[in-house]
Amino acid sequence: MKSKNWTPKFIALAVICFLVGVGTGLLGYHYFVKPEIILSMKIEQTMAMVEKVIYYEDTEQKVIGLKSEDGIEIVSLLACTLHELNSQCKCIWSEREIEEMKQKDKCVELVFQIPTDVTISQWIEPEERYHIPVDERGYRILGINNALFIMEDNLGEALGAYILTGHEYEGNISYGGWAIIKGRDKLDKSWVYSLDRMISELP
């Protein structure tokens, strides 16, 4: 009885398995690993553009050193928080209103060296992209001069855990309101708790 030669079939099967494995790996890289790498690079770029960080509480302000270990940790948290923004609220505040918040609210301001593009987590429908700047994957880009992170709202405007982003328009800075919403419209306050802890540990 003549034995069958299975070698060609095993080779073909091995080639198919290899191609399936490579394809799965490429898909995983494209959809999971690559976006994380891109986001990490964007966060580092945002951090590199920071000029100063100022903490406001009880009409007093404190400039946080950017090169200190605490300063780097705070800037990293704020940069990550900016990129996670996904929900827009009340659109416009004037510089006068912002100055009042700095006097009465507990907040931290992130000031950039020059207007900086920050990609946030709000995905824009293709038909809306003609008037809204987006990145290569369709996520919204905000041009930001500075950002005010409201930790504690003492003015009764329900702005606790909101971030107000400032951009220049016709020679003035106007501010739009943003937040991070996690499932069923729940406002994410985790960054406030983390920032409060970091601030309390400053020398």
Strand and helix map with partners:
Elements: H1 7-48, E1 50-57, E2 60-64, H2 69-84, E3 87-88, H3 95-104, E4 106-123, E5 139-152, E6 163-169, E7 172-179, E8 181-182, E9 186-187, H4 190-200
Antiparallel strand pairs: 1-2, 1-4, 3-7, 4-5, 5-6, 6-7, 8-9
Helix pairs in contact: 1-2, 2-4
Summarize the structure.
About 6% of the residues have low confidence. This protein has 4 helices and 9 strands. The protein has a 7-stranded antiparallel beta sheet with strand order 2-1-4-5-6-7-3, sandwiched between helices. A two-stranded antiparallel ribbon has the order 8-9.
Q: Strand sequence of the main sheet, in spatial order? A: 2-1-4-5-6-7-3
Largest sheet: 7 strands, antiparallel
Stretches where pLDDT falls below 50 for ≥5 residues? 21-33
Percent in helix: 25-40%
Over the alpha carbons, how many angstroms does the gyration radius reach?
A: 23 Å
> Can you count the beta strands?
9
Cα(first) to Cα(last) distance is 87 Å
Mean pLDDT: 85
Succession of helices and strands: HEEHEHEEEEEEH
Based on helices, strands and strand pairing, what is the structural class?
A: alpha+beta
Shape: globular
Estimate nothing, just give the exact number of structural domains.
1
H/I helix tally: 4
Strand content: 25-35%
The oligomeric state of the chains shown is single chain
